[in-house]
Specification:
This protein has 481 residues and is α/β, with parallel strands linked by helices. The chain is 38% helix and 20% strand. Strands 1, 2, 3, 5, 11, 12 and 13 form a 7-stranded mixed beta sheet that branches. A 7-stranded mixed beta sheet has the order 16-17-15-14-20-21-22, sandwiched between helices. It has a two-stranded antiparallel ribbon with strand order 4-7.
Length: 481
């Protein structure tokens, strides 16, 4: 029996696995705080308490099998960190990947490196306000005492791993998305200067050490596997390949493609990071998707299921409403941090269902644009969908119709947890079969009439997107976002 812990942005999930898949699952919410416009913080103690809570739920569901666990492993959100002292105590709240306070610092890093593409070719990432390198520079400029008192900069999994084992470590997939390292895994002096001593040692995702802390309910000596970042785990748990990208719906939506070697130059709009076992990932991280629907849910007062049902009942094309879901700036494939979300062509006749459907369609259009940038690498085959959006048929139906590709679903929408399970098995010498742990259950092919309708609409929505990107609202919105 294996136990996985997925430290996500909004929740921590613990899953108990045997050779045939998940046996029990626990989930604990993790609150996010927004003390200033554009800021996103968490109390790192919540990472630990949510881990204990989620594991306790699993034990309560199936104590007999829980006590048979031989190894624990992790999947984790990336680009989030907190300064901690030598004893592992957090020095203030953590800065999330979605925190946008470091825009000026990001611009300075990009300028000093010779431009965004130059820095991307060196580090693999698009350095923007959310990048750890930019947020570390912000701390150095605005809260220098936190860095002076710090011994480490630790992400969610890093902190939990330390509390469980006493060891300080991060893994190659998380380090590779920080901006502190180049694509060869070496420190990049232009971005890591001044914080080199605060970065945790980097180890392989399959690194395993003995459990020391027993608060999770397992005996000391149980193997604890370091694991990997959420996207690196997802491609394993979903069976993605160089011909079958994965599209993951969550707070944001991400397109990920494993590749044995990186193309030179990198495809437009994509970033690169190390794979969990070998090779690299090409990734396109879109702007808000699940977060945009949550925002609309709060705005309309409808619960999630009611809003999704209303979107499914709305006409294709949302009766003319065009959405641009860029609440946190336009990310892949555009990479325009100053862009903002919008609904266009609204009339008094439109309702929440039209707006929700327009948001779903807008995210699918950005997925299609991103995949088109990968045409030489990804071919025209199927894509695998995972994440919260696969629970209902609308997202999968739209994804197939707008991309023109069959969409494969596996049994568990928690591909990151499944991938972490596969890593645990590999680390302890008990490899698992993906098609037993997380088999394919359905394939949704593009509906011909729906695909035709979206092909007709695509030139219009492209013109709208390009038109809004040409409007600079940064001065007017300064201080509000």
């Amino acid at each position: 029996m294996f136990l996985t812990v997925d430290l996500g942005t909004s929740a921590t999930k613990a899953v108990l696995w045997d050779d045939d898949g998940p046996v029990a699952m626990g989930r604990a919410e993790v609150p996010t705080f927004h003390p200033e416009p554009g800021w996103a913080e968490q109390d790192s103690d919540d990472w630990w308490s949510s881990t204990l809570d989620a594991c306790a739920q699993v034990r309560a569901q199936d104590e007999r099998h829980f006590l048979e666990v031989t190894a624990v492993g992790f999947s984790t959100a990336r680009e989030t960190f907190v300064p901690v002292d030598a004893d592992g105590h957090a020095l203030g709240r953590a800065l999330l990947w979605s925190d946008r306070r470091a825009g000026e610092e990001a611009a300075d890093l990009v300028a000093s490196a010779g431009g965004l593409d130059t820095l991307r070719e060196r580090t693999g990432i698009m350095v923007d306000a959310g990048s750890p390198v930019a947020k570390a520079a912000w701390l150095r400029a605005h809260q220098p005492d936190r860095l002076r008192r710090a011994r480490w900069l630790l992400g969610p999994r890093d902190l939990v791993f330390r509390r469980l084992t006493g060891e300080v470590a991060t893994d190659t997939t998380v380090a590779g998305r920080s901006g502190f390292y180049d694509l060869d895994g070496e420190l990049a002096p232009e971005t890591a200067a001044g914080v080199e001593e605060l970065l945790p040692p980097v180890s392989a995702p399959t690194t395993a050490v003995a459990l020391a802390a027993t608060e999770v309910g397992l005996p000391a000596g149980t193997r604890v596997v370091l694991g990997a970042g959420d996207r690196a785990c997802e491609v394993l748990g979903a069976g993605a390949s160089s011909g079958t990208p994965i599209v993951s719906w969550g707070t944001t939506t991400n397109v990920s493609l494993p590749t044995p070697t990186l193309p030179n130059p990198l495809p437009p709009g994509f970033v690169a990071s190390p794979g969990a076992i070998e090779g690299h990932l090409l990734e396109a991280g879109l702007s808000a998707s699940g977060a945009a629907l949550t925002w609309l849910q709060q705005l309309t007062g409808l619960d999630q299921l009611a809003l999704v049902d209303a979107a499914a009942a709305a006409e294709p094309g949302a009766r003319g409403v065009v959405a641009l879901p860029w609440l946190n700036g336009a990310r892949a494939p555009w990479w325009r941090p100053g862009a903002r979300a919008a609904f266009l062509n609204l009339t008094p006749a439109h309702g929440p269902g039209d707006l929700a459907r327009a948001l779903y369609e807008a995210v699918a259009y950005d997925v299609a644009r991103s995949l088109e940038g990968l045409s030489s690498a990804a071919g025209d085959g199927s894509i695998t969908a995972t994440g919260g959006g696969v629970a209902g048929p609308l997202w999968v139906q739209l994804l197939a119709a707008i991309t023109g590709r069959p969409v494969v679903l596996r049994r568990s929408g928690e591909a990151a947890s499944a991938g972490a399970c596969l890593l645990v098995g590999r680390a302890v010498g008990a490899p698992l079969d993906l098609d037993r742990v997380n088999p394919v259950v359905t394939t949704t092919r593009p509906d011909a009439s729906l695909a035709k309708r979206y092909r007709q609409l695509r030139p219009l929505v492209d013109r709208v997107a390009h038109g809004l990107l040409g409007i600079d609202l940064s001065e007017w919105s300064a201080g509000w976002t």
